[in-house]
Design goal:
The chain has about 290 residues and is mostly helical. The chain is about 75% helix and about 0% strand. The chain has two domains: about 1-140, no CATH class; about 145-275, no CATH class. It is built from nine helices and two strands; from the N terminus they run αααααββαααα. Helix 2 (about 45-65) runs antiparallel to helix 3.
């Protein structure tokens, strides 16, 4: 018998809703106060972390439901949600205190906040790694959806790992008297971390849309979209490593970005072609 997802995951769903609501509130606050988008004290951070964290909580809860049932799923889901809720909560508190949430060791309290955030996201990442392993044993479902879940979870895990690299390289930049936001000449350290962070949402949505449209070979299309995410992530990593800004595209970055775009175009073209083939044809005029 399938589990009642809402009864098992209700607190998790509410935690995600709380973060999304907080993120939207801070977006409105930023718009209403004409606050700057960039900078360590911008409401952008609680806004984006809120919306992103809430969506991630929902996606993790949904992914748990797609795996073969495990007796501690309820506890696991709540621990993952609690970790993300607490981390984003600390980021939000730091914003309202008027101090940076990251790379800030001004006071003992700031050190405690940053250390706690690091520990929380580490625990969430370890839980995510276990969920990636569990994704090899999914409940019966269309192949396109299983590909979307596995690819989305692994890309999320890689993104979390890149987040830790961002922290390490940011510390190196600070030690060398540079901004923790920039690597080399103009590389944006946080760019790779967010480049494929939300594949866990986009890929299952694509799979669901293909199922709804009754498109054949849906698994191939989902693979194209997944590899598009991979190449775009490669582009973001390359831009940062060589010290280029997001839009300062060189030859290698251009190739990676072009392949990513072509894979998306191929996926869209395949969908349009298959849908067009299903349209009723007008009888030939004699």
């Amino acid at each position: 018998m399938r589990r009642n997802a809402f009864s098992v995951l209700e607190p998790v769903v509410l935690a995600g809703a709380l973060l999304v609501a907080s993120g939207l509130f801070h977006l409105l606050w930023m718009w209403g106060t004409n606050a700057e988008w960039s900078g360590p004290l911008s409401p952008r951070k609680p806004a984006l972390f809120g919306v992103s964290g809430g969506l991630t909580i929902w996606s993790i809860a949904w992914s748990i439901k797609q795996c073969t049932p495990f007796r501690y799923d309820r506890i696991f889901a709540r621990l993952m949600a609690g970790g993300l809720l607490a981390e984003v909560g600390l980021i939000t508190v730091q914003y309202w205190r008027g101090v940076p949430s990251h790379f800030n060791r001004t006071t003992t309290l700031d050190i405690w906040f940053e250390s706690t955030m690091f520990l929380l996201i580490l625990l969430v990442t370890l839980g995510l790694a276990w969920l990636c392993w569990r994704s090899f044993w999914l409940v019966p479902m269309p192949q396109a959806r299983s590909i979307a879940i596995r690819a989305g979870l692994w890309l999320l895990l890689v993104s979390c790992g890149l987040g830790f690299m961002t922290t390490i390289l940011g510390e190196v930049s600070i030690a060398n008297g540079r901004s923790p936001e920039i690597w080399g000449r103009a590389g944006v350290l946080k760019y790779p971390h967010g480049a494929a962070l939300h594949a866990i949402q986009t890929l299952p949505i694509v799979a669901a849309l293909l199922q709804w449209l009754q498109v054949s070979h849906a698994e191939r299309i989902v693979r194209h979209v997944a590899f598009s995410h991979v190449f775009f992530l490669g582009y973001a990593i390359w831009q940062t490593v060589v010290g280029r800004s997001r839009f300062d595209v060189g030859f290698v970055g251009g190739v990676l970005l072009l392949v990513s775009a072509l894979l998306l175009v191929l996926a869209c073209a395949t969908i349009v072609y298959e849908l067009a083939a299903k349209l009723p044809r007008s009888p030939a005029v004699k």
